[in-house]
Each structure stands twice: as structure tokens, then as C-alpha cells.
Fold these 2 entries.
Entry 1:
Amino acid sequence: MSIPTLTDPAASITNDASVVEQNDRNIAASINNLENSTNVAQYKGVKVFAASGLLNRTSTLDGNYPNYVTGRLVNFFLFWNQHPSTSDVEYLDISGYAIRADSTEAHQPDLITVTLQRSSTVAGAYSNVGGITLNSGATGGLAKHQTTDLSAASYDTSKSFHRVKVEATLDSATGDASWQNFPVFVVVKVRMKSASA
Amino acid sequence: MGNPIVRRIRNNTFGNGPVVRANDGALLAELQGNAAKKINIQSYTSYHDISAQVPWFALDALDVSTDAQKSNPSESGVVWLHRVPRKKTLSKVSMYFLNGSMIVGPGLKTEVRLMKSDKFPGEPSFNVDEMGEVIATFAVDTLSEQGDTTVAEGTGATTGHTVNCRAGDYLFLYSTFSMNEGLTKFTDFTKVVDAGKLSLHLVFKEEHA
């Protein structure tokens, strides 16, 4: 629908009542074909993408076979190809927390960085949109739920491929660079908005 | 809410207040009413998404045995399932391998199909037609290769669809595999099982509720 055309009846010197009538008809037609971008005040829905997983070093396979988690980095912890990829798509926020899987408090990563990234091709290169950092040394530790507002980031219609990259640093307290004994469970949620279709 | 009825105003009747007022009243009634989808709102559907990282071949979901020959390819399994909670339309499917590159030995064929059925796929069959409707397929086929095949990161595709799903329908990933006759590289297959993760992303359209 477009904005209905209304003509000023006072301009009708012939006392043409059809002007008033046509105005009403135009309004009626407009009511009957509401467009989300011009007529509906709140027309976007919230999209939620979520994932959880254990960052745990798996045994090395013979040959050139990647593991789901090799050490501390997972590039595609969460993946999607945003649709529709239109300029009215919005980012809302990214949030998450982590729980150490080892019973010993020192056995956990110092930091876990969770980053939302986007790209024009599925295999990259990916650029950052925003993210959170979970800090085992901060109040609440890794398990403290962190949220970063992403509403200031504008959507790029040419970069529909999205992923959440999760990376854990080694534990400096023990100096154990291998890290394999310190698995950690990570939970991530990304929220976006997109229009009705 | 429906189409407001506007009455005709005759010429030289500007003073005929009741007609003008009746028309304005009809419009006011519509504006005060609830705008109904399909009748009044042009775009009355929303998109929502499902995203998952799924092993191509979850070992505990498959009957993996050493006799999985091409001539008797009975090994198959359902590795992911979603029951449609309400009527919606599947609009887009993305299936990609995103775990770095992977080398697959010759003589193997692995297929992961996104399928739809109104029946619970509780008893996987190698007869794909019996399982339901195939929507999209991700495959690694080295049956006719002589040497190793590298599966690059980003292998896969995004495809558009208009698949109407009813409440209660099942969408699922159905995996099958087979090997060339006499192939003894069963360990190669188990590596594919361990390394192969499929990044699945589904986009649905559904009416506002």
C-alpha cells in the first residue's frame, strides 16, 4: 500500500462530490492493503540463533582429518546464511556463558572470546560484527552471563554468511599449554530482527 | 476486518451530511478494528530459522559394519530430526562442510539427504523413496576415484525451496553410505564419520499467529 491520495474538495468549483467520495475510496483501498514498511508500526520479528557445545580436545586422527575442536578454537560454533539478506535486517545482541567441566577451579581457560562474524562467501574471509569475552578472573567467572548490544552495527546485504567463532585461551595459572584436560561447556545466543515477508 | 464500504456521494450533495458521515464512520470502524492477515496486510508471514551442526554419520545412529559394500548398501541412519510444530513453508536450505579440509579415500559414497515425511522415520531403509520426499542432498562420492579426494571447507550449497510442511510432519537428515566391492579401507570410512560435520541451516516462512 502507498499513502492514500487525498484531494482538497474545496478546489472543486463545480461542487463535484466525487472528490470527497474518491478520497474515501482511496483511504479504503489503502486500509485493505497494508504494507509492513509504511503502514505497520512494528513489523519485524526477532530471530534467535543459539548453540551450545563442549570445547574438548579430541584424540588426533591419523592423516589430514580435522577434529571438531582442535585445541581451543572453533570457527563455526554456530553458522547460518541470513535470509532475507535485505537492508532492513538488524542485529540485536550476542550473549553467552561457559561452565568449566573440570572439578578443579584452576583448570579452566583464562578467557573465552565469542565473536559474531560475517562474510560474503561461505568459506570466508570473515569480519567481526561484535562479541563477548568471558573472563575466569572476573567476578562470576566464566559462568557469568555476558551480553553485548549489537544494535549499532548495520547489516551488510553483501555478507549474508554468519558464524560464531569461539576461542579459549590457555590457563595461565597452571601454564598447561596443552589444555586438553580442561574442557569447557559454552552456550551462545545471537538475536537479530528481520521484516515480515 | 474487511473492505470498508464507501457509499456514493452524489453531485451537489456536500450538504448531505449523513452520507459523508456514514463513509467516514465505515473507515473509522476499519481503523478501530483488527487488521486481518490475508485481507488487510500484504506481508503477513515471518521468517524463522533452524541452525545445527550435525555429524554426517553419527556412529550410534548407524548400523556400521564391515560388509557395507556397494552391492549391499544397507547401512543408513537418521542423524537429525525436526517435527514441524505448525504449518509453515521451508524456503531455504544451506548444507555445508565447514570443518577445514578433509581427505577422503577412494571407493566411498556418502550422502546426507534432507527429507520430509508425515511418518516417523523410525526404521531407516536404503530405499530412499520409502523414507519420504528428498528436499536437498549433500554428497561425497569417491566411488569412481583412483586416489584421495579433498573435500574443501565450504563444500555444499544454499538452495531455495517452497516445501509446504504441515503440523506433525517430520524433517530429517537421512544418511546412507556404500563402498566399492572388495574395499578394505573401512578405517577410512570411520575417519569420515569422525571428521564429517554438516552445518545445516533451514529458513522457514510462517503466518503470523
Entry 2:
Amino acid sequence: MPPGLDQLKHIVVLMMENRSFDHMLGALKAQNPAIDGLTGAESNPDTAGNKIVVQNIAEFQSQLDPDPDHHFPAVDLQIFNGDPARVPNMQGFVKSYFNQRRDLAHSQKIMYYFKPENLPVLTTLATEFAVFNRWFSSIPGPTICNRAFAHYGSSFGKVAMDLFYVNEPFKSIYNRLIDATPKHTAKLYYYDQTSSTMEIVNLLQHQPELFGTYKDFLDACEKGELPDYCFVEPNYNDHEGDDGEELASDQHPDHNVQAGESFIATIYQAIRNNADLWKSTALLVVYDEHGGTYDHVPPPACTPDGFVATPNDTGIGIEFKFDRLGVRVPAILISPWIPKGTVIDGRIFEHASIPATVTKHFLGSYDPRSPREKAAETFLDLLTSPALRDDCPVFDIG
Amino acid sequence: MTLLSNALISNDARAASKGVSLMAVIKVPAAPKSSMNQDRPVSALLKSQILHLQEAEFRLPAEYQTNIYIHSIQTEGDAGEYIRQVTRAIHDAHAARIRRAKLKTKPKRTSTKAAAPATPPKTKAKKAAAKKKSKK
């Protein structure tokens, strides 16, 4: 077993909000051609038939207002652009955004992407550790159903933001761990009570003891008392906190992207600052879905989930068998046991890869899981460095 | 190799990291305070979070419910206040449930004396009262 995997005691997942791979990391292709980002020639037609080319002029805030539509029908248009043969072509992003404000100039902003120097945290982590060329959201749809795949390996047939209750055969990854023999520890950390969690109906409602706050996470890192598995949620709204104003850090449009950068850096540093924790932890930073922003890679077909969303559920007049992934999102695996500049190519990951990986590492064989999760790639084989790295970056957070 | 320009790497921070020669120190600029906008209209994401919390709130005992009319929530500030109250209520109700469960399952105190009297011994006050009564 590689030494990194041998020493791995903790897996931490930080799930951010609503940005595509190309929007955040697409510019890295110019630095490293192995990263499947943008050449600068990618385009979409607008509703007037003009060719709208990608531009690296994305701003931290105020550009994507209104929030780009990312519900199932809108994402279907973004991916297929109305192609009757339903071949994914990623040509409908500008048209989809136009539908919201009917403003031709504004609709083109959906093609904007960030310069690397504007995202020092995310781009540093992507180039210093392992960046995934093919990590897709689990569903071509919005937040709640995509986050469900990270917790349960399934959304139990849901493609939207509505309430749902878990199907008993598929336990959450947290319950699998705490119910196991020997018992493991697991926690979801939401930012604070004013931001709370997106996992309300099933877990917060019935098992609030599974939850902690961001401050609890920092405290656990400092004391070396981190649970085996941790899922961290950012701050979802601007609010007054105990220590003053708290900026939303989820990067959901139209929240400030820089606040999210700082948040990612604090999670990294909290682990990095404790030497024992640093060498025994793998941190995955991933986004729940693309939030309507442009990406050039067509989502691939995947193992069906055993559920079917009706035409009424999908809103596009046809059913969905959970047999295609959603739009590609940024995903970075961080550990001092990962060789610098790793680019993972040729393998397809999605959010069901999270419970699949955690289950495999802590529990070994575990049968009652969704077909999607059983088929999902796992990622701990990436901790291949023969020695602990001593050149990992640190962040000086302003 | 990091993609950041050297301009982003603080010399002071580099000095602070002396002894670890290869380690880059990356400056992370803070978001401007002007980004704060609690009057921003609630997003679809927050709306669904509110609906989910309301569903959870309705299942709480009446004394923990907020009685906030969620359709009056228009801004992120309003949303945050509702989210805070319901999240706290869920935790409080859960803590109360645990306390009650502990009380129910609490084992009866067992005396170290194996042969405890069937009736509790009279206290000094009771003895005095009984004496007074018998005198009458």
C-alpha cells in the first residue's frame, strides 16, 4: 500500500456552489495543456446567430445577475441546444441565459471565465495537487439533488430542489460510518446557524447530532479531533454573525467569489497547520453543479440509477433515467502524498464517487448502495507519492 | 509550478516560511466589505432551503415553532434570521428529547444497604410533628 494511503485517517470534502470547470479553471490549459480547459476559441451562438467566444473577463460579483438558470430544463438546453437527436453539444448556454433577461449583450456573459491570477487559491491547489479533468455533477440539474449524490450516492429519483426522503436501503455515508463495527466518526459542518445546511429533511431533522459548525471544524483541526469523515458546507448567505458581518462564501452567483477563495484557503490551512492531521488527511474541494456557467465538455452517459424521473418531473416532456451526468465542475484532491501537478485524465468521476471512496476506505465491502455509487470511480489511489511532500503551499489569508 | 505571478507572493510571508525553502506562500486578498448585501433578494437555493426548514419546523413540538410566515421572507437578511431560528429550534428540540429519554431510562437509585427499610425513616421534622400530635 502506498505510504499516503497507509497513513490516511481522515477524508474531508468541501462542496462549493454553482461554477463550471471552464469558468473557474479553464484558463489553466494555457499553463498546462494536460488540463482540459479552454483554448480561447470555444463559442456558443447567441439568439441573433452571432458567434460568442469565451473571454477571460469574469468578475468576482455583479456579472451573473440574475442567477443563471440551472434547473433541469435550462441545463438540458445548455447541453443539447434543442438538438432533436439529443447529441450533447454544449451550444445552448447563451440562449439559456438570454431567456432570463432577454438582453443579448448580457446573455454573452455566461461565456466569461476567470484569469488564474484572480483565483489564487483554487488555481494554486489545482496545480500543486491533483485536478480532475472529468469530474461531473451527478445530475444535469440544481443543487439539492446533486448534493444528495454526495451524501447518499443517489437522489432517489429527484431532479429538482423539492423535498425528498431517503430510500431506506441506501443509508447516508454518515450513517454507514457511525453504525459500523468498529464504529467510525462522521460529521457535516455547516457554517453557522444563520447559514445552516442544505441537508435538512433527512439528516438535520432526524440526526442533528451529526452536525457541527465551521468553528467546530477549526477547533477539531487544531485539537487533532477531526472525525474520520467530514463534509463541509460554505456560508450560503450574507448575514450578521457573532463576530460581525459574514460574507457568503459559497461562490453561488451573485455572491463574491473572493470570499469563497478565502473560505477554501481557511479549510486548507486548518488542516495544513496541524502536522499530524496534514499527513493523515485527504481534502477534496468540489463544486455541486455548474450553476448555468459555460463548460465545453459534453457530459457522458453513465450507469442508470434504477430510478426514473417522469416527464412532469423533468419539465422537458421526456423522462430521465439518470443515465447521463450533469455538467463538469472543478474538483481538486489535496494531500501531501499527491505528486505536484497531477492531472487526472481518462477516468470519469461524479459526486457518487464521494460516498464510494469513503465507504471503500473505511468500511471495505458494503453492498446496499445505489447502482450509480457501485459503478462510481474512487480516488484515493491518487495518493501515490513515495514520500511526504515538504513543498506544499501555504496561504496568507487577508 | 504554481501559476501565480510573483506579485501575488508576499516577501514578508516568504520570510515567515524560512526553513521550508520550496514552500510558496500565496497571498489571498479579502473580498471587499462592500460585497455585503443583506438586502439581496433570496435566491432559488435559499428559497428551497427555507421550504425544507419549514417542513422540518412543522414537525417540531409547537413550543419550538417560530410562527414566521415564510412568504414574507424577501431578502437574504430575512432568510438568515428564519434559518437561524429554525436551526436552533431543531437542535433545542433534539436536546430536550435526549434529556427526556435519559430521565425515562435513568436507573432507580440503589442503596448500598442491601436491606433498606420498606418505609422511609422519619425525618427529624416528621418525628417532631408526630411527637407534638401524640401529646395532643
